[in-house]
Structure formats: C-alpha cells, structure tokens
Design brief:
Blueprint lengths: L7 H5 L7 E5 L3 H9 L4 E4 L3 H4 L11 H12 L6 E5 L8 H14 L3 E5 L5 H9 L4 E6 L5 H4 L9 H17 L3 E5 L3 H10 L4 E4 L7 E4 L1 H5 L16 H15 L5
Parallel strand pairs: 1-2, 1-8, 2-3, 3-4, 4-5, 5-6, 6-7, 7-8
The protein binds 3-methyl-2-oxobutanoic acid (KIV).
C-alpha cells in the first residue's frame, strides 16, 4: 500500500483517469478503516449531526462539535485528505467563514467544504485567498432542508439546471479544488462534470461524476434512523451488531 499522502492536487489529477472514492468519517476507528482501503478523501461531514449526535438534521451541528470530530479523525493520520464541513451559520460573512475555516484547519482538517455556489462566493474567495483548500457543494443542500421543507432532487428544470451550472463554474473559477454534487439530476451532473475543469464527486447524482461520496454509516447499514434510496448496503451491519450484542447478553450466567 502506498504511503503517499493525498493533496488537493492528487485528487484533481484523478479527473478523467480514475474514479475518486470519498467517504465520511467522524471518529478515529472509522477513519482507520477507511484509510485501510486507501480512500483518498475523508470528509468529516456535518451529517455527523444525524448519524452520530442524534439531531434531526445538520442545522444543529456546531463548530465546536465539528472541531471535536475533526481532531478525532486527524489522530488517525490517514493518507487520505481530511476535509471538514463548515457547519450551518458558521460562514455568513467572508470574515466569519475564514475564521471558522481556520478553526477546522487548526483542529487537523486539510481543507473545508461549504454549501452553496454564487450566494457564498465572497466567503469561498476569502477562504481560498488564505490558502485553505476548498471543496464546493451544490445541488441539494442539507443545511437548507428546514427552509426547503425536505431533501429534493435538483436540476429538474432548465432554470435549476442553469443555476447549478453557473454555481459550478463560479466555484471552479474561484479556485475550489473539487465539487460535491448532491442529489443532482443525473444528466445535469454529467454535463457539469464535462464542463468544469475540477473533479465532481457525486452523491445520489448518477454515475456521470468523476467520483462518488457516501455517508459511511449508510454504506455499512449502521445509520440509526434512515438510509437514503441512493445507497444499497450489501448488508445491514446494524442487524449483525444487534445479533452480536444479543448473543453476549444471553451468554451471561448467574453468579454462583
Ligand atoms: O455531511 C455530509 O456527509 C456531506 C455528504 C453528504 C457529502 O456533506
């Protein structure tokens, strides 16, 4: 297994050459497992809120919580690049975005991700101008779920398609090293992939992206409440875990 550390450049170099695998990690043991299979990008995602912290959505995740989990992942010293999500309301202005991003970098992240395109461009520019690698995220934006009333596929009409393309091009032009496309209508995701010079990493956006990212607990079938339609875990590991716990409990005997 290669010991080479991934960088934004090594991720970019894969565009058009090999598919980019990316997974979420929230703690030390999961980061070690992901690193064992050589996944080049580990995202400390704010999906943390639902799959680890028991929140109903990502909007309650705080910067302190993100820092705590970034530190845990960083302690695993993976070869993969560690990217951390800027949580809800932590990037309202360019100044706040930079200070929040710097806190995640100080905690051990090697880059940050935030949700939105043209609307957050000044924030993105201030992060990139400070030399912090930035991963874009457009399409369905989980931090807007309350506002939008649900998780809806994007790019289903010409207006949405045009807006997504404009966002993608603006983020690439600003210097984002890659772009997550979440729940983007597959043909539109494929078109964005063709049109931008940076890698696209899809989630529920079809096979036409340069790479794929999943919430690891969805992939393993251990997400506590809900597994989205675009993930078909090979088995529900949570059932196996419950089985093992049951076997242990049953094995207990009364003290003599
Ligand atoms: O928080 C997260 O896990 C994410 C992925 C869904 C891309 O942003």
């Amino acid at each position: 297994m290669s010991e080479t550390r991934e960088t934004p450049q090594t991720i970019q170099n894969r565009k058009g050459r090999e598919p980019i695998a990316a997974l979420t990690a929230y703690d030390y043991p999961m980061a070690k497992l992901i690193d064992a299979v050589g996944v080049p990008l580990l995202l400390v995602g704010d999906s943390l809120g639902m799959v680890v912290l028991g929140y109903p959505d990502t909007t309650q995740v705080t910067l302190n919580e993100m820092e705590h989990h970034v530190r845990a992942v960083a302690r695993s010293k993976p070869r993969g690049l560690i990217i951390a999500d800027l949580p809800f309301k932590s990037y309202e202005t360019p100044r706040q975005a930079l200070s929040s991003a710097q806190r995640l970098i100080d905690a051990g992240a090697e880059g940050v991700k935030a949700e939105g395109g043209l609307v957050i461009l000044p924030q993105v520019e201030s992060i990139i101008a400070a030399g912090i690698p930035f991963l874009g995220h457009i399409g369905m934006l989980p931090q807007s779920v309350v506002e939008e009333g649900g998780y809806k596929v994007k790019g289903c009409n010409p207006m949405q398609e045009e807006a997504l393309l404009a966002d993608a091009l603006a983020l690439a032009q600003a210097g984002a090293f890659g772009l997550v496309l979440e729940l983007v209508n597959a043909p539109v995701a494929a078109e964005i992939t063709d049109r931008v010079g940076i890698p696209t990493i899809g989630i529920g956006s079809g096979i036409g992206c340069d790479g794929q990212i999943l919430v690891t607990t969805d992939l393993l079938g251990t997400s506590p409440d809900f597994i989205p339609k675009h993930v078909q875990p090979e088995q529900l590991l949570r059932d196996r875990m419950i089985g093992m716990l049951r076997v242990w409990k049953k094995s207990l005997t009364n003290p003599k």
